[in-house]
Amino acid sequence: MIAHAETVPSGRNPLVKFILRWLLTTNHKEIGTLYLSLSFLLFFIGGAMALTFRAELAQPGLQLMGADFYNQMVTLHGLVMVFGAVMPAFVGLANWMIPLQIGASDMALPRLNNFSFWIMPFAFGLLLSSLFMPGGAPNFGWTFYAPLSTTYGPPSTDFMILGIHMMGISSILGAINIIVTIFNLRAPGMTLMKMPMFVWTWLITAFLLIMAMPVLAGVVTMMLTDRHFGTSFFEASGGGDPLIFQHVFWFFGHPEVYIMILPGFGIASEIIPVFARKRIFGYTSMVWATGSIAILSFVVWGHHMFATGMPLATELWFMYATMVIAIPTGVKVFNWVATMWGGSMTFETPMLFALGFVVMFTIGGLSGLMLAIAPVDFQYHDTFFVVAHIHYVLYPGAIFATMAAVYYWIPKWTGNMYDERLGKIHFWTAVIALNLTFFPMHFVGLAGMPRRIADYALPFTGLNTFATAGAFLLGLTQLLFLYIVIKTVRGGPKATDQVWEGAKGLEWTVPSPAPLHTFEVPPKVD
Amino acid sequence: MSQEAIHSGDGPPDYYVPHSSALPIVGSTALFITAFGAGHFIQQSTDTVPTNTGSFGFWIFLIGLVAVACMMYSWFSTVVKESYQGLVSEKLDRSFRQTMFWFIVSEIMFFAAFFGALFHARVITVPWLAGASDNLQTHLLLWPDFADTWPLFLTPGGGLTQAMAAWGLPFINTVILVTSSVTITLAHWALKKNSRGPLKVWLGLTVLLGSVFLVLQVVEYVEAYHELGLTMSSGIYGSTFFMLTGFHGAHVTLGTIMLAVMLIRTMRGHFTADDHFAFEASSWYWHFVDVVWLGLFTFVYWF
Ligand code: HEM
Ligand SMILES: [Cu+2]
């Protein structure tokens, strides 16, 4: 039996009860919902910032804002999306689904789980408050390179640093909780090699988080002491080096980009077999590919630094090592396609998003491969080509994966089916808008338009106007998504327990909506 | 676990899922107050942000720290109480162990960031500034007089310092920490044999050694600042020196506090020969702090 104590003291006013319930909960499903809601909110905040600077880029010249405010928007957009939208969304999904998928009654450390969540709103409060500080918000890009962020950073940089420390604490504690849950709370018979791919990818992601986030904490700490206590880690006149910043940052940064995609790989690997009504092709190779991507991701960070004048041997190492990552990534794409091969496929919204993920993530992977070629990266680096790359891996990658997961699991969460017609409209408008927005960036980037600059040369006008139009359409489609989610939460056709015809796995054995406590008695898996 | 075993009345529940709890929200609020205060405190006390004056930052920071400490005290005593109520099953105990393991892994990576900076500075940056590899032009143009030495006595910008000798206080401190790793192990063995007397002696000795280490560290810092001219701002040597030894010292402080709490709990009769996870976790932490020191002694002081 699982020992619980009753969740909320009774006999108080309903509003107080409501607030206390969400503040004090230790339940993995409620905490999952909290994470997902926060991530959704920050997704819109980050999106509004993107539309702000996209509006400025609609025409050459400066119409709406100064160059400094433009850069503040770019910086906060990146930080909010990476740490506030993508990461908490995946953690929210992990909270909801990992215990359900491995037959555990809750996360391993439920109180710690609540702590990890409630650090986040405070951390983002701190980060976003920088907008209202004298000197404005941080304005040096989400990668906060020294010396832009040390010698030349605005005062609010200190609060960004402390906000990042808090996010780091939250991520590390959350990751530890997830790892321990997976290692320790699997139902009897659920061996490692029987775990659903989503669980596998999260296990490896959590490992990456534990290895990478402390390094981020280290680098921002060095920034703080360089700014205020006279150290010279990133200051050549003291024998330090801005390159030290870049090395340490990217030692965190590259694993970080895999933190933002591996759970997405897991989601695609869950959804595609269900709607192809076949078992996943090459489960074992999927596990191995994920593991090798994770390990390789610690030895390729220098591909972000090709243009800094590293020694030739180092450039070569990072170039080849990066290309090697394309192999396990290719294995995954191959397996997804092979899973669909000969399947009897249907195209409900989760499947559409999963397919959109596979196709467009692959485009991002290919532009990554181009960037990985050191000699040509000298041309591409710091241009909109890189912006195109990161948005193809992150938007149809991380964000589409999250949306696929929401459509796929929301019937289990709410007990209601979403509106299939609206879901399809959402998908197709999003795909069109997304490509309108980001595809032109490849061309302006190759032609030399630099990133993080508010103005541009006249010949780039047409494609930029195009991209801005796409961006606003993309923003609109996400309002539709918000509407669909709210509508589904409030009602809709009742979902069955299995929800999807081809769905297998423990999460589909519990009722829809999943009751607050599930698997109090561990299920048997054979 | 079979169904019967789960339902049999006595013994801990299969897995204890705690109450809704106010600890986390108190903790995150406290953390926020600490960070908010720290930001203002740093800006106000270092005079680098002219728009932020006053001294409220310090007080907010202090309040936050106290709140964090209270939260942690209350959190850990809750867990201890739950353990006395027999709520901790073997499985939950395993969760605690794994959690501590991964926490230490994350701590190691935190130090790795600073070691990385140290190695890069020593192996690449300083030689490059002196013209190595293909940097002769830069060297001649910017700092033609700069020479490649380690410890870096004279920075390119002209900052001067002396080095901290390895075989004085740092070596004594090495001996102290290594000894303390032995004494904590002896304490653990004593606990496993349930010999409370030796347990108290060895544990007390460990706490004492930890404290002596910290005192000597302070003495060393005073010497660095007043006699050697070695400060945080004396170039990359001072930066890495104080960052690494400073964070290590903070971890020794934390470890000593943990062990002191274990000592108090031992005095109060807590722990049994086969149930003493908190003690083990603290001793793991202590070994981690010790190993990091060996890295420090080797790369910060010695070579
Ligand atoms: C086949 C796999 C990939 C390869 C070969 C690759 C390669 C690269 C390279 C070489 C760069 C540096 C470009 C430059 O700054 O000049 C880069 C940047 C970037 N990549 Fe990838 N990448 C891959 C996958 C991914 C994935 C899966 C993600 C995230 C989900 C990602 C996110 C990013 C981001 C965010 C940046 C830009 C960082 C910045 O702001 O400077 N990449 N990639
Ligand atoms: Cu990378």
Describe what you observe in this structure.
The complex is a heterodimer of chains A (526) and B (303). In chain A, 67% of the residues lie in helices and 0% in strands. Chain A has 15 helices and one strand. In chain B, helix 4 runs parallel beside helix 9 (277-302), helix 6 packs antiparallel against helix 7 and helix 7 (196-228) runs antiparallel to helix 8 (235-267). Residues 1-9 of chain B have low confidence and may be disordered. The termini of chain B are far apart. The chains are: A mainly alpha (526), B mainly alpha (303). Strand 1 of chain A pairs parallel with strand 1 of chain B. Residues 254, 257, 303-304 of chain A line the site of copper (II) ion.
| Multimeric state | heterodimer
The gross shape of chain A turns out to be: globular
- Summing up helix and strand content along with how strands pair, one would put the structural category of chain A as mainly alpha
H and E order of chain A:
EHHHHHHHHHHHHHHH
CATH top level assignment of the largest domain in chain A: Mainly Alpha
- How many domains of chain B? The number is 2
Q: How many discrete structural domains of chain A?
A: 2
Number of helices of chain B: 9
> How many DSSP helices of chain A?
15
Mean pLDDT of chain A: 95
Q: What proportion strand of chain A?
A: under 5%
How is the main sheet of chain A built?
none
Protein topology:
The complex is a heterodimer of chains A (526) and B (303).
Chain A: E1 2-3, H1 14-24, H2 28-57, H3 67-102, H4 110-129, H5 157-184, H6 197-228, H7 242-259, H8 262-276, H9 283-296, H10 312-340, H11 349-371, H12 374-380, H13 384-414, H14 420-446, H15 461-490
Helix pairs in contact in A: 2-3, 2-4, 2-15, 3-5, 3-13, 4-5, 5-6, 6-7, 6-8, 6-9, 8-10, 8-11, 8-13, 9-10, 10-11, 11-13, 11-14, 13-14, 14-15
Chain B: H1 3-7, E1 15-16, H2 23-46, H3 56-84, H4 90-129, H5 136-142, H6 169-192, H7 196-228, H8 235-267, H9 277-302
In short:
Chain A is mainly alpha-helical and 526 residues long. Helix content of chain A is 67%, strand content 0%. Chain A has 15 helices and one strand, in the order E-H-H-H-H-H-H-H-H-H-H-H-H-H-H-H.
